[in-house]
Amino acid sequence: MIIEELRNRWWKRVIENNLENVNVVVKVRGLSPEEAIGKPAQFDFPLYKGREVMIQAELNGALGQAYTDEPKYYEGNLISINQLKLSTNHERALFIATTNATYRYLGLVTNTLHCKNEGPELCGKKIAEYLASNITPNAKLLMIGFQPAIAYYLSKKFNNFRITDMDPTNIGQIRQGLLIEPYDSNKDAISWSDAVLATGSTIVNNSIDDIVMLSKGKRLFFYGVTIASASYEFNFERLCFAST
User: For a tag site, which of 9, 49, 90, 240 has the least CB within 10 Å?
Assistant: First the structure.
């Protein structure tokens, strides 16, 4: 599993930097929607619907974030984080936020804090522009994990565009003029596609392994802050243009 291999690589870096013997405290708390993304001018973001929460880990002043639908406060050292079973969204989110904070602290990654205010829309525009310049205009593009600003601007660039999502309140709905398909259709949708843009939170909800496997031979991109450390370790192409 990708997350297990990430844990192995993360822990090796922790040991190499003598962090396991330091009394490093990891504090994780759920952020309010306004704390996480400010007040975007338009679009109905998942954080404001209350189904997902952005949690934040702080490690010696370095911050890392991750999306989750199972937020819980946590405080402990890196040894206790390494002992998590990673069997639930809650545990995986704790680990990922902590890993992002660790890699930020070590100077291995940047952009581990979600963009705010006009940032999500700006990022959506830049992602659409980037993909339009990197894959052919007639390419079949699949988005896994609905994000309204990104979806809106991609729909302006690509005629062959599909979206899948796990949120039952989105599935079957028309959002930004686009039909949201169920996540269960991913296998068919990935097979149909030439390129895939997936939310980084797939590493928290435990769907990333299937997506990576099914996307072999295709151009695969991830978006967001959640996937920061995993992108570094596995050379995933991450699009996250307005984060800090």
Answer: 49
State how far the Cα of 70 lies from the Cα of 94, in Å rounded to an integer.
Answer: 10
- pLDDT tens string 22-74: 767 777 655 555 554 455 455 454 544 446 788 899 999 999 999 888 888 88
Residue type, 105: Y
- 50 φ/ψ sector (left φ>0, alpha ψ -120 to 50, else beta): left
Predicted pLDDT at 241: 95
Return the minimum-mean-pLDDT range out of 38-47, 121-130, 131-140. Answer: 38-47
Strand-pair partners of 28: 57, 74
Is pLDDT at 133 greater than 60 in this prediction?
Answer: yes
Taking the C-alpha atoms of residue 55 and residue 219, their distance in angstroms, rounded to an integer, is 29
List all residues 6 or more positions away from 117 whose beta carbon is below 8 Å from its beta carbon.
37, 38, 39, 40, 41
Q: 10 Å Cβ neighbour count for 156?
A: 12
Distance separating alpha carbons of residues 10 and 176, to the nearest angstrom:
39
Q: Which of 42, 25, 37, 107 is nearest to 65 (CA)?
A: 37
Token pair for 222: 């991830």
Q: Which among 95, 104, 89 is positioned nearest to 59, based on CA atoms?
A: 104
Closest CA to 170 of 147, 139, 189: 147
Alpha helices in 62-112 (DSSP H): 78-82, 89-105
